[in-house]
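To whoever is on call:

I kicked off a structure prediction for a single chain this morning and the downstream step that reads the tokens threw a length-mismatch warning. I double-checked the sequence; it's 589 residues and nothing unusual in it as far as I can see. Pasting both halves so you can look.
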Amino acid sequence: MDGITLSVIRCEIKGYLPLKVQKVQQPGKREVVMSLWNPQLRERLVLSLEGESPFFGFSGERKENPLAPPGFCLVLRKRLEGGTLADVRQHGLDRVLYLDFDGHDDFAGRTRYVLVSDMAGRGQNVGLYKDGLLEAALLLVDGARFDRGRPYSPPARDRFDLREVRREGDPEERLVQALLAVEGTSLQVLGSTVEGVGKELARGILTAARQGPTSRFSQAGARSTAGVLLDLSLILCPEEIGPGSPCPPRPCVYLSPKGPVFHVFPLAHLAVDQEFSTALEGAKAFMERTSELRIVASLRAYAESLHRKTLKKVQSRHDAQLQDLGRSRDFDKYRVWAQLIDASGKRNPPGASGMTATDYYRDPPEEVIVPLDPRYGSRDNARIYYRTYAKLARGEKVLAESIADLRAVLGGLVDARLVLDAAVDAEDLVRVISRLEPMAKAEGIAVRPPRKHPVTTRRSRGSPLTIPGATPIETVEGPGGSTFFAGDNARQNDYLVTRLKKPGDLWLHARSQRGAHVLVRPPAGQPVSDEALLAAARLAAQKSGARGSTKVEVDYVDASRVRRPRGSAPGFVTYTGQKTVVVTLGRPE
């Protein structure tokens, strides 16, 4: 986002102020999320320095937070939670925002804090200021603009502000002279001359002015570009923008070769993908779109890595076993050599590399030289040849079966490659990963699914339940129209308890054993039948550490009584009011 887009978003947010700070979170090293509300609005405000472009605005995405909050997050919670966002200011049209909060000091008194979000250039950071001095920062301070215990040093304002350019003299002539005075390409000159203009807006302005972004400004090119800038200055009236008034700019998400682009002004060089009535709506949709693309990119990279590693290992094993099979098919010569040594009647001592014997298998018989290992005598060589013959005779059958299995895996990898190339969204990639992970595990390849960005796609009831980077959660149709959901690991168990359970569900787990959590979901408006309860208990027992036992005790309780304690590891839960059922499994082998 450039400074002009931030200005429009800032002024729309100001129309909803004041906003109460309900919760502060820090899901990433360079991102802060605040849950804000008032009687008219409940939203999550995101300050993000992730990726190539910073973001400021509302977002509906819910990311996984670390178990231990970072230090900066703890400071914000202590100072701002329960406080009020009173104002949002901007440093000219630069990418620097000042968020004024009425927070709490060490003695629970009301104190004004300023959260500075500097998104400009290499010195990006977010800092909390009290009485004008830096108290805490999101990133390590470098002493340039952020320095602990000192005031914030904003970037110099040495460029044209389009909101003020018409206030004195001849604005068009001043813009023309400024554009001609700077050396460099037109794209570089425009960005360094006009405040708040990012690369994409600069390209759009130059396209509208018919000026090449890589060429230098001529007198005519500078004048046409100045005319476009003055037209933009007429509609850039952010102070008049509010939730109840129309937005003079046109917020749109555009399509570009590098991905979606969001801006509040028309970009003549890009095609419009979606138009919005307010900048806040457009920014939220853009955030969701870019988040989905990050998820897809992360899952695709993981799937590509799994496929590449598995294919390399399986192909290497296949080639090696083919060579072994070629050698094993020549095993009959070892039997012949052993029999020729025994039939010759000679007993050569160690040291000989060969011996002469009559080969009666040929017609007519002829003298041949039987190779020997000089470390052993002839009789020991005969025993070695008999053992080698027997081993290779057995190995040929085993190798042939193994090679057939490896060829089946290679065929599966070819099919997975085709599906991977055709995958367009996160759900397609999760399905591919669910096919690749068992193959990788079988080859001893470490499976480390990406966890940073959870998939937040809408799923219809009854569709396969998936966690990003993990295999699908097992879904079993139970008796009487009930449905069983069984976790396979700690992440899936945690997902069942924290995200999937609904009122009326029954939760089961083998008593005092490690194993799967099982959810039973009866048909709508009906209780869980005894038949479904026993079937689900048997499933929980079979997926527990007591699967080898004849009888297993299984706890069951209403899912609403199961909770994960705050700060505990995924998969760890507590519950009360449980009952126990004993199920019988098959006898252990």
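Update from on-call: the warning came from a stale cache, not from the record. Cleared it. Sanity check on the structure: Confidence is low (pLDDT under 50) at residues 238-247, 452-466.
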